[in-house]
Here is the input.
Amino acid sequence: MPQIPVTGSRPGVKPTPGRIAGGDLPPYGTPLQKVFLRIVRSLTDAFLPVRCASCRSFLQTTRDDPDALRFTENDTGAFSGGERILSSVVCGQCLSDFEPVESPLCTACGIPFKSREGDDHLCGECSRRPRHFRRARAAAVYTPVMMALVRAFKYNGKIQLAQPLGLLLASTYRRFWPEADIDLVLPVPLHHRRFRHRGFNQAYLLVRDWTGPDSPLAGLSPAVVIAKEVISRIRPTASQTGLGRQDRLRNIKKAFRVDKKSLIEERHILLVDDVYTTGATADECAKTLLKAGAARVDLLTLARAL
Here is the structure.
């Protein structure tokens, strides 16, 4: 089985001017550097106060040790919830709208059931129309606060949000894939025209910090491997936003191509994207990967539309 290249380089994207929660300077190692960082943070707090990434009200933040992880594992093996992770970027009022995806849910598409009783099981839609991906999971329901975060990150260029949102996604990965049986993480690709227009692939930014000794997934065995340019979007499809299910299926049909088949053959692949609406894009992507030889495809997203 060929060696998979680990992608760790960051795209040449500059943060947009202005300050938004989640846009702190990176931590420094030595005591002198830490003191300097605290001084810089104090000055930026005074002259460029932090605003909530959702409602834009001023946000009172509490500074943690800059070298500390943003979530920790407790005695039960569970990780701190999304509320804690997002508290550095969202005010308390907006945070009350955060709704994590929890059981009972569909074992295939991951949609949470309205009834809070019973076990996970296949939903009616997945029973009628089986998916090409094995299972899909999301960090949170696509409530107004998640919509605001995704829009700010994806369409308004607030790439500072990639750090807390990526951490939220990593926590969700550890919750739903405790067996860590994923060989390869693939961000859902953009067509090159949309990439040039936007300047970045939001799916890749969410996972770019998942590798290395200081990553939120450090210590997992096997280690997470992220690859780009393995699968590409070959048709400039229209935006899926606002389209119904059948229109989404037609729009995305045959839109992907595997460019490096040797890297995906017999692999267990995790696709990563921002929002799951109908699943049409992820399912077409999974179909393409399976035809090219992948053993299994799963899906992880930030938000799940109901």
Observations:
- Confidence is low (pLDDT under 50) at residues 6-20, 24-28, 63-80.
- The chain is about 30% helix and 10% strand.
